[in-house]
Amino acid sequence: MKFSNKRNDRGLEINLTPLIDVVFLLLIFFMVSTTFIYTNALKVDLPKAKGDEQTVNKNIVVVVDSNNQIFVGKKKVPKFALYRVMKDLKEKNPNIPIILQADKNAKHGTVVFVMDQCKKAGFDRFTIAVEEE
């Protein structure tokens, strides 16, 4: 049996299609995951104007400490006055949310009482603050 001495020497062929696919996928991934910063290219001096005072939509922080004392902001509020204080705050800024910070040693009943009084005053958005572990 005679074998042919012809060799198929076409050289090394590298298929570039998978490589191009991977490069485009990486390009798309980085384009989508990048956060863009929009800067104002033109510096503009805006005119001054007078108008009604705007109310700043901040949060109301209600704190229940380990002695079950209630604070709205940094002001101590007795239990019997909490509803009135919260009602006044709701009338001043109706869309303001509540952040409730309760000490881990505070009584559960006091925290529920605070939430009930806030709910009666018309607040429906609560955030309960916790510490990250």
In short:
With 133 residues, the chain is of the alpha/beta class. The protein contains 3 helices and 5 strands; from the N terminus they run αβββαβαβ.
Question: Which labels suit this protein?
Answer:
protein transport, transmembrane helix, transport, 5 strands, membrane, 5-stranded mixed sheet, alpha/beta, 133 residues
Structure, explained:
The protein is α/β, with parallel strands linked by helices. The chain has a domain at 60-128: Nucleotidyltransferase, domain 5 (2-Layer Sandwich), CATH 3.30.420.270. The protein contains 3 helices and 5 strands. A 5-stranded mixed beta sheet has the order 3-2-1-4-5, covered by helices on one side. A hairpin with a 2-residue loop joins strand 2 (70-72) and strand 3 (75-77). The longest helix has 17 residues, at 17-33. It is elongated, with a radius of gyration of 33 Å. The N and C termini lie far apart (79 Å). The model has no long low-confidence stretch (mean pLDDT 80). One of its GO terms (cellular component) is plasma membrane. Keywords: Cell membrane, Membrane, Protein transport, Transmembrane, Transmembrane helix, Transport.
